[in-house]
Amino acid sequence: MHKSFGNLDAAWKEASFAYKSVPFFRNRPSLPPAASPAAGFLDIPMTSKPDYRKNFPAGVLADGRSVNDPYVQRYQSSGTSGDRLVSVIHAFKLADRMANCLSVNKRLGFLLDEPKIRMCRYAAPNCSDVECSNPNTSMEDRILQDGTLVLPVYHDLLTTPEPMLKRAFDELHSYEPNVWYVDPMHLSVLIKKARASGWKFDMGRKVSVLLTYTFATQALLRQLATLCEGHFPVASVMAMSEFGFVGLACEEGNLHLNDKDYYLEFIKMEAPDDRDDLWELVITSVGDKLCPHIRYRTNDIYRLLGPCKCGSAMPAVAFQGRVKDLVRLPSGRYVTPGELDALVGAPRWIDIFQLTFQKAGNFIFRYSGEAEPNAEELAALRSKLEGLLESKSLRMEAVHYFPFERGGKFQLVRTG
């Protein structure tokens, strides 16, 4: 099953340009003849990250283009699903995509009137092109070409030395950003440390907090609300190094994907249970004359929502995680990070949690928090988890430490 959103004519134009002007596509068979535009577009072979990694730069850039051209910005993926990928995008395309995404949330409207977006980034080290895990780097060493300041960060977030956290806290203020572009887990740790150490956030600033990089659980959002609610608008962002902004959450909290700058396709995953209703996102860029992406598999999984109360015409979706993060049960059903988060919610006694799936069909649910659960709360959550996992082989552990990926990202669901 297939659903699509966006301008199909613009997507065809993009594909025609790519097959005429980009070596990788030119070396493929010609565009298939179309019985109808929609059916014909489905006949175009999909692309994926290895295609762009293997053929970068000459094979995937349009004829006559170079990574050294004016206004070209370079980004590296974090490498969470394989080797790192270098992507290039025109700065003006990035700005257009960001502006269209910001338009879905009125609380962020002030950014559209700002003469310049001044951003601080706080996330895992592998998400940046600069050396931010070295405690000896200066603030100037960590400013990207677009003016974004990357705050100092440790590979193992939960063991970050206090001086490094203090530098991140101080720079978050001294640089005077109007956007905090952050991993919700990283910001949560910084808020906790600031509260414990008596460091005071300046709440009089005009700042927006954009959450990205890893899954923003309800438990993390509860913690961030203690600092930001009533002061700073907070919204989750779907972004990819290949494209920049892809979607943003509206005031209702629903994620809307940008169907103005992209043609969006959703391919339904095969599953024996109708409750899964999971769709993989495939993206075609629109108007990209540098490095067009045609039917690009994101490996990101969503549920499709109906019309949103906010009134935005951009499709509303619920992000469920990446393909690699899905756990398939013996029944054939999938358990997704999104479904797990919806079940766990934001009880006062959970700040961080993680589900580990073991090959023998056993599960471990680890959690930590500043409060203690009572026996009834713990039993109720166990019962719900056993129902979700279709298993009684579940161990629940209160812990003080969670393992992070080698690149510094946190996995909500892991296999081990």
Automatic annotation (TrEMBL):
Nuclease is among the record's keywords: no
Alphabetical UniProt keywords: Ligase
Superkingdom per UniProt: Bacteria
GO MF annotations in UniProt: ligase activity
PANTHER family per record: CAPSULAR POLYSACCHARIDE BIOSYNTHESIS PROTEIN (PTHR36932)
The name this protein goes by in its record: Phenylacetate--CoA ligase family protein
